[in-house]
Amino acid sequence: MTTVRIDVITLFPEMFFGPFAYSMMRKATEKGLCDLRVYNLRDWADDPHHTCDDYPFGGGPGMILKPEPVFAAVDTLQAEPPRGRVLLTSPLGRVFNQQVAVELAGAERLIILCGHYEGVDERIRQGLIDDEISLGDFVITGGELAAMVMVDAIVRLLPGVLEPGAAEEESFASGLLEYPQYTRPQEFRGMTVPEVLLSGNHQAIRRWRRKQSLYRTKEARPDLLAAAQLSADDRLLLAEIESEMAAERRDFLGQGRAL
């Protein structure tokens, strides 16, 4: 059994205690699949006040993470084998998605530096960082929340964390959104479970689910559909979907003329 080690360097380690103590994160650590460690950056600051930030040269608003404690923290952690891939949560980084999560889940060890304030001293980026990751084009207070999301997405992909095959069925795993899911009761407030899911015909169920996945992605995220690797069967299903949608539009317009 392989254990993936993830080290998180942050100014606010307390933020991680709750989220990492539940659900899949707890399961992964208890089963020894993930060795997750959270470090306080201030422990490597060498002044009495444990200062980790300072004003930017040249003026401007905000504070910048200083290089000395960050280099000291990473050097200390890298002295313990295996050597880790150092990630910085940063708006300058590539956008985090399922493909990036899969890539990072294959690493033996990750070291995540949580960006904060107005950013980090450029020498940190030049001298320490292997990769920069952003959650998207919006602003949050610090990199801690981004690190939590990244770690959760990565850890759930580790072998043994989820049930076999579960990760492959989730949204984005195949490049498409997930199909609709139903459970008991069979009828609720006039809404019923599709008959095909009750049929016991596994081939028909697989076909229905794939078609629904394609339909949802076409409607909600056409950008994902354009980039997805589609089979010949997928393209036939898409043709069916487009034909059905065209028929619905004709019916709607016909009803409008009748009114």
Task: List the defining traits of the structure above.
single chain, 259 residues, alpha/beta, Alpha/beta knot, Trp Operon Repressor, Chain A, 2 domains, five-stranded parallel β-sheet, two-stranded antiparallel ribbon, elongated
General description of the model:
Helices cover 40% and strands 16% of the residues. It is an alpha/beta fold and 259 residues long. A 5-stranded parallel beta sheet has the order 2-1-6-5-7, sandwiched between helices. A two-stranded antiparallel sheet has the order 3-4. The termini are far apart. It has 2 domains: 4-155, Alpha/beta knot (3-Layer(aba) Sandwich); 187-258, tRNA(m1g37)methyltransferase, domain 2 (Trp Operon Repressor, Chain A), CATH 1.10.1270.20. β1 (4-10), α1 and β2 form a beta-alpha-beta unit.
What topology does this entry show?
Elements: E1 4-10, H1 23-30, E2 34-40, E3 53-54, E4 64-65, H2 67-78, E5 85-95, H3 98-105, E6 109-113, H4 122-127, E7 131-134, H5 143-155, H6 166-169, E8 187-188, E9 191-192, H7 202-220, H8 222-227, H9 232-258
Parallel strand pairs: 1-2, 1-6, 5-6, 5-7
Antiparallel strand pairs: 3-4, 8-9
